[in-house]
């Protein structure tokens, strides 16, 4: 069987979580100056880092233009953090305390102590409310929501995302701001997991339509008024939204719509990040899986072969997933010489299994072992049918 796209979600979420925290904690050593220089209140949408199922990212509490006072305050505090305590005001001391709490939370996330991180974040959000600092509240709520999402606490994550969005919108952030849409996408994915299909579909539709309209508006703007990075972030976020909806549709056996969204997401990812980018290959493989489920085995095999070849050349971290998908599609394809394809499929499964074990991907190991069992069953059935066919001929 071909590996389901969900087999890559948990590992990718954890990897994204570590990446997010590592970015922040790399600067902890030394004077501590950069200790307070936690990333701005929004990272560019790190889409196509499988996230997903959803990536842990930091949200921007206001529009793209300008730098928030809260971010500037953190930069200033970086220089005063170890200054004379007598010279600092009470407000500055509170900001110091808040910054340290957030740093402790991120460090705890990095080393896997998620409960401790949650405790630090709860203290931080209480302090942010005490300071009446909306930007800090939004920033902390978004971290708490992402952490709850990674821990599988979906109802709690939903409440926290809604709280962060409420503060953002009441503060004047437009509905089509990328940070608002990214949170909306996570909410849609939560509803999809909870089988709240009407809410999920409405959420996916809001994200894709808002981003498509925003991209069309951006085309009319003077080139100097919009940076290449902003344009790219918006397109990649659209790709992430299409990818998420495609997986939702595929899980509900709506393969035509899933193929449409996968093709569009793949086009965006290849244009913005290159044909050999890890996520381009994942999308290519996922598209092949859906085509295989539709019975379009030849087209599916062509796509997954390309993904495997590019992945091998680029050293794709999930090469075992690509190989497993190719093995499953080859097994389903059938031909005038099924035993040859069974043999080739078996070799691919064994190679994928060895790589999955080396990578410590337990979920993929289980999926691959199921694929080998299905292959053995098909081979036995084919072997049994041969004598019967010969008997009929005689």
Automatic annotation (TrEMBL):
Main location: mitochondrion
Localisation per UniProt entry: Mitochondrion
Record region (Disordered): 359-394
Skewed-composition ranges (Basic and acidic residues): 371-394
GO cellular component, one term: mitochondrial inner membrane
UniProt keyword annotations, A-Z: Mitochondrion, Repeat, TPR repeat, Transit peptide
InterPro entries assigned: TPR-like_helical_dom_sf, TTC19
Pfam families: TPR_12 (PF13424)
One of the GO BP terms on file: mitochondrial respiratory chain complex III assembly
Highest taxon, organism lineage: Eukaryota
Family: Belongs to the TTC19 family.
Name used for this protein in its record: Tetratricopeptide repeat protein 19, mitochondrial isoform X1
């Amino acid at each position: 069987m071909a590996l389901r796209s969900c087999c890559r979600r948990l590992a990718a979420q954890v990897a994204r979580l570590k990446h997010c925290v590592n970015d922040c904690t790399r600067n902890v050593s030394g004077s501590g100056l950069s200790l307070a220089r936690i990333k701005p209140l929004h990272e560019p949408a790190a889409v196509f880092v499988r996230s997903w199922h959803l990536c842990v990212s930091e949200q921007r509490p206001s529009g793209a233009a300008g730098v928030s006072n809260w971010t500037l305050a953190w930069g200033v505090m970086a220089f005063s953090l170890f200054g004379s305590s007598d010279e600092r005001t009470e407000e500055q001391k509170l900001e110091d305390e808040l910054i340290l709490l957030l740093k402790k939370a991120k460090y705890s996330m990095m080393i896997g102590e998620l409960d401790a991180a949650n405790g630090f974040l709860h203290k931080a959000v209480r302090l942010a409310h005490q300071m009446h600092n909306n930007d800090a509240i939004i920033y902390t709520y978004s971290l708490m929501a992402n952490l709850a999402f990674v821990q599988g606490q979906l109802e709690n994550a939903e409440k926290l995302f809604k709280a962060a969005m409420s503060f953002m919108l009441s503060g004047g952030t437009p509905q089509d701001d990328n940070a608002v849409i990214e949170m909306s996408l996570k909410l849609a994915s939560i509803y999809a997991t909870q089988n709240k299909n009407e809410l999920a579909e409405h959420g996916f539709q809001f994200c894709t339509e808002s981003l498509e309209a925003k991209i069309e508006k951006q085309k009319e703007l003077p080139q100097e008024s919009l940076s290449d990075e902003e344009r790219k972030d918006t397109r990649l976020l659209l790709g992430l939204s299409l990818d998420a909806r495609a997986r939702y549709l595929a899980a509900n056996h709506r393969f035509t719509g899933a193929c449409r969204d996968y093709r569009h997401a793949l086009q965006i990812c290849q244009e913005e990040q290159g044909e050999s980018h890890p996520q381009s290959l994942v999308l290519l493989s996922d598209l092949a899986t859906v085509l295989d489920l539709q019975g379009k085995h030849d087209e599916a095999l062509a796509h997954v072969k390309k993904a495997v070849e590019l992945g091998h050349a680029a050293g794709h971290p999930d090469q075992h997933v690509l190989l497993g998908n190719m093995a499953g599609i080859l097994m389903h394809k059938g031909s005038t010489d099924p035993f040859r394809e069974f043999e080739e499929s078996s070799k691919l499964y064994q190679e994928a299994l060895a790589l999955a074990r080396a990578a410590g991907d337990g979920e993929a190991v289980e999926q691959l072992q199921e694929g080998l069992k299905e292959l053995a069953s098909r081979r036995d059935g084919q072997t049994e049918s041969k004598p019967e066919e010969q008997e009929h001929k005689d």
